């Protein structure tokens, strides 16, 4: 704030009302009073950015009208396009991990299927779920290569297994729908298992 930097308040709607209200003064007055330091004035180049989750997610709080009024620009983001999402998954794999392009495509198809199923799924899988599946798959392949794991199971069997575990905590079904049934349908549709 003093040096004209940028402040990112990530997942601002997970902050309590009290925490959100502490932003009102610096956003309106470009200054803040800090005990034992006094009033601190923001540099003219100071910039505030906030990001928030969809309001329907649990653990989120409504933004106050006063805070909304001080946020000047609103941009609604959706999921990135396929190429960008695959790049994000690749970038998040540790350096010594590798997976084939065809395996990345399978992972993307799994995650994308959760987003297409608007009948049964309230909250679909995020990019984080794709990253988790890719990391687990790459770790398995590395352990096989090192001779630590000697089981002979197909990539489809292993992907089916890790998909069950990752999606169990990554998607939220609509009321009355069993998440396990959704996952099995996704596996059958994408992996044929």
Keywords:
mainly alpha; 2 domains; two-stranded parallel ribbon
Can I get a quick summary?
This protein has helices at 17-21, 24-29, 65-70, 82-91, 101-116, 127-145, 155-170, 179-191, and strands spanning 6-9, 31-34, 38-41, 47-50, 121-123, 172-173. It is mainly alpha-helical.
Commentary on this structure:
The protein has eight helices and six strands; from the N terminus they run E-H-H-E-E-E-H-H-H-E-H-H-E-H. It has 193 residues and is mostly helical. The protein has two domains: 6-70, Rossmann fold, CATH 3.40.50.300; 82-191, Helicase, Ruva Protein, domain 3 (Orthogonal Bundle). The chain is elongated and about 65 Å long. The model has no long low-confidence stretch (mean pLDDT 89).
CATH top-level class of the largest domain: Mainly Alpha
Domains, number: 2
Largest sheet: 2 strands, parallel
Approximate helicity band? 40-55%
End-to-end distance, in Å?
54 Å
CATH topology of the largest domain: Helicase, Ruva Protein, domain 3
Mean pLDDT: 89
Secondary-structure element series: EHHEEEHHHEHHEH
Tally of contiguous helical segments:
8
Strand content: 5-15%
- Shape by Cα distribution: elongated
């Amino acid at each position: 704030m003093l040096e004209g930097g940028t402040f990112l308040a990530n997942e601002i709607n997970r902050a309590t009302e009290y925490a959100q209200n502490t932003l009102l003064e610096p956003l309106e007055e470009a200054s803040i009073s800090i005990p034992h330091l006094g009033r601190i004035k923001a540099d003219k180049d100071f910039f505030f950015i906030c990001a928030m989750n969809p309001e329907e997610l649990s653990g989120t709080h409504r933004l106050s009208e006063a805070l909304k009024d001080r946020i000047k620009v609103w941009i609604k983001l959706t999921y990135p396009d396929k190429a960008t999402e695959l790049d994000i998954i690749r970038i998040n794999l540790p350096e010594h991990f590798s997976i084939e392009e065809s395996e990345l495509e399978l992972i993307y198809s799994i995650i994308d299927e959760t987003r297409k199923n608007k009948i049964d799924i309230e909250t679909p899988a995020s990019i984080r779920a794709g990253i988790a599946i890719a990391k687990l798959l790459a770790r398995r392949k590395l352990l096989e290569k090192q001779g630590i794991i000697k089981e002979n199971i197909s990539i489809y069997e292993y992907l089916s297994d890790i998909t069950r575990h990752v999606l169990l905590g990554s998607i939220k079904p609509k009321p009355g729908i069993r998440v396990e049934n959704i996952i099995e349908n996704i596996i059958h549709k994408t992996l044929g298992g």
